[in-house]
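Model: You mentioned two targets. I'll fold them one after the other.
Researcher: Yes, keep them separate.
Model: Target one:
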Amino acid sequence: MINGDLDAVGMSFDHLNSARKAFPNVPFLVVARGRDLPDDALMASPLADQATIEKIRKAFTDHGQDLLGSVLDGTDDNQNTRRAFPQFHPGQRLSDYVRAM
């Protein structure tokens, strides 16, 4: 988009703020805003193997803090992810509208 090869792009609010800081002379315009995604949204295709889905769900449930540490280590870009893991509850009803997509 900065180089002129794209007219629009979807991004999170945090990435928009990062882009505005990185390119202060480039005007960014928000043309639409979607609903906030729940912090714990993990999605899989209905065609995905159920055993694999359960294995991934168990990894996040049992080792979420270790995974978070790996995501946060050595970068400032992912610090906003810190807030997701304490609230992670697989099957939480707040995610129903995401599941309906």
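Model: Target two:
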Amino acid sequence: MSDCFPPSPADFEAALKRVEAGLATIEDATLIRQYVADMEEGMNYLCDRLRETREMLLHEIESSNRLQRALDEALNSGSGAYIP
């Protein structure tokens, strides 16, 4: 494992195999902790983006519903009103 890069999946798997064999070192524990922390950070980032996307979609649905109601009212009233 390189100190300047996050642990790779292969590094993680190798550390787990050493844990399973009872040969784990402090470096293995550190690697596993770092790998898990990186995974958590990635999941948190994706959850934040998903939450933002959901909020944007809900806003767009609300806008679309308002427009649809306005169009329905204009069509039902027969007024021929222009709706921007």
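Researcher: Noted. Anything on target two?
Model: The first helix runs from residue 9 to 20.
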